[in-house]
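=== RUN LOG ===
request id: a7f3
mode: sequence -> structure
chains: 1
length: 169
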Amino acid sequence: MVISLIIAFTLGGALAYALWKQRREANQALDQHEKQKSAAPPTQPLQLQAYERLMLLVDRIALPNLISRVNQPGLSAREMQTVLTQQIRQEYEYNVTQQIYVTPESWEAVRNLKDQNLLIINQIASFLPAEATGQDLNRSILEMLMQSPKASLHNVVADVLSYEAKKLM
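=== RESULT ===
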C-alpha cells in the first residue's frame, strides 16, 4: 500500500510539474507575442497619412487646379496637352505606393480620376485645330467642365477618400 501511495504521489507530482511547466511556457510565448505586437508599428496613422496624401493628389490633378498651376503662356495646344498629361502622370506615379494603405475602392476612385482627366485633355486637344494655343486648350477644358460639372470626378473622389479616412478615426 505504501508503495502504491509513493507511486501515486510521484506520478501526481510529475504530472503537476509537467502541467506547471507547460503553462509557464505558454505564458512566456504569449508574453513574447504581446511584446512583438506592441513593438510593431501601428498601421492606422499610416493609413490616415495615405488618405491625406491622396486627397492632396486629387486636389492637384483636378483640372481647374492643374491648369492654373501649370499654365504657361506661349505654348501650343499640343505642348500644353503634354505638360498637363505629364503633370497628372507624375503626381499619380509619385503617390502610387499609397495604394497599399487604402481600400481598393479608394485607390480605384483615384485611378479612375487620373484616367478620366487624361481622357478629357486628350479628347479636347484632338478637336482643336493644329494652330491652337495652350490658352485655347485650357479655355476649352474649363468651358467643358463649366457646361458639364458632373464630367469632373474630383469632388466625388475627394468625398470617397474623406469617408474612408473618417471610418479609421
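=== NOTES ===
Residues 1-40 form one domain.
The chain has a mean pLDDT of 86.
=== END ===
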